[in-house]
UniProtKB/TrEMBL annotation:
Pfam families: Ribosomal_L7Ae
SUPFAM superfamilies, alphabetized: L30e-like
InterPro entries: Ribosomal_eL30-like_sf, Ribosomal_eL8/eL30/eS12/Gad45
Protein name, UniProt field: YlxQ family RNA-binding protein
Domain called Ribosomal protein eL8/eL30/eS12/Gadd45: residue spans: 6-96
Record's signal peptide: none
Length: 101
């Protein structure tokens, strides 16, 4: 199975387990409350969103990974397009990190 399919299906699984939060405001809130274990950010996010999310991640020491585009990220969780999602489960976060490295 290709790397891309692996992480997207794992993200879908995490989503069905209700361990995924999507949407900029909600993700930033999760980071602030230190519930987010990993943040996935699409490379086609606006400069403003990119800076806001990466700065928050660095400040609260939450790891983040960049993924190809918003449509791939959205599709993985069964939504239209998503620019940023947070995974708030350590197990899913650890596995996703290894798949995205």
């Amino acid at each position: 199975m290709k790397q891309q399919q692996q992480w997207t299906s794992l993200l879908g699984l995490a989503n069905r387990a209700r361990k995924v939060i999507s949407g900029e405001e909600l993700v930033v809130k999760e980071i602030r409350q230190q519930k987010a274990k990993l943040v996935l950010l699409s490379q086609d996010a606006s400069a403003n969103t990119m800076k806001k999310v990466t700065d928050k991640c660095k400040f609260y020491q939450v790891p983040f990974k960049l993924v190809e585009d918003r449509y791939l990220l959205g599709q993985a969780i069964g939504k239209e397009a998503r620019v940023v999602v947070a995974i708030n489960d350590a197990g899913f976060a650890a596995k996703l990190k290894t798949l995205l490295d």
